[in-house]
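Quick question, first post here. What does this chain look like in 3D?
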Amino acid sequence: MESLDIRIVLVAPSHPGNVGAAARAMKNMGLRQLVLVAPRQFPHPEASARAAGADDVLGTTRVVDTLAAALDGCGYVAATTARDRDQYFRVVDVRAAAERIVAEARCAPAAVVFGAERTGLTNAELEMAHTLVRIPASDAYPSLNLAMAVQLTAYEIFRAGAAAAAVAEAPIAAAGAPPAAPLASVEEMQRLYQHFAEVLAEIDFRDRTHSGAHLMSRIRRLLQRAEPDENEVHILRGILTAVQNRRRHAGERPR
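> Answer (accepted):
Ran it through. C-alpha cells below.
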C-alpha cells in the first residue's frame, strides 16, 4: 500500500501506555505520523514498552500545545466520538470515513483526531473537523479504550488504502474527471471564521434564537459540512470584504 499523508492526533492523552499502544497499532497498519496535544506524560518508559517495536513511530512523534497546531497544514479532518452529538454534526461509520480519509490524503495531509480517555473531545474541538467518526460497538458496552480505537481506525484506513491502490493499478478504460481542488486548510478555515465574526459584529447581526449564544458555532458547523475548497474560501472572504468596504463607503459623509 502506498504511503499516505495521514496524521493520528491524540488530544490530552493521560496514560503513556495508550500512546505507546497507539504507536504500535499505527505501525501495524502502515501509519507513521503521530501527534500529541498536551499529553500528561511523554516521553515515558511505559510508552516505549507498550510500543513493542514501534520506537521509530514514537521517535518521530510531535508534541504540540493546541489542536490547531496539530492540524497545521491539514485539509480533511475527521474526529472520533463515542457520545451522541446534536444534529448539526455529520457522523459517519468508521469504514466509510476511512475511505474518505484515504482519498483526501492524496490531495493534502489528512488527520484523525482522538480525544482524552475520560472526556473525549469537546464540542469546540469537534468543530474543527469535517465529520465525526463512530466505531460500531455493542449498545450494552460501547466504550473503547483509546489504543483500541486507534487500532480499529488504523485497520480501516489500511483496508481502504489497499482497496484504493488496487483500483488505481487497474487499467483505465476512459479518462476520468479532473482531480478536485484541495479542501481549505484548517488555518484558512480559521481565518474565514474570524472574518465572519468581524463582519457579523460590524453589521450587528446577532443570534435571534432563544439561547442567543451559538451563532458562530452554527456557522462553523455549516461550513465544515459544506467542505469548501481553497478557491471557495477565497470567494467567501472576498464577499465578506466587499460587505465591509460597502459599509465603510456608505458611512462616509459626502464632501
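The domain at 186-250 is CATH 1.10.8.590 (Helicase, Ruva Protein; domain 3).
The chain has two domains: 6-169, 186-250.
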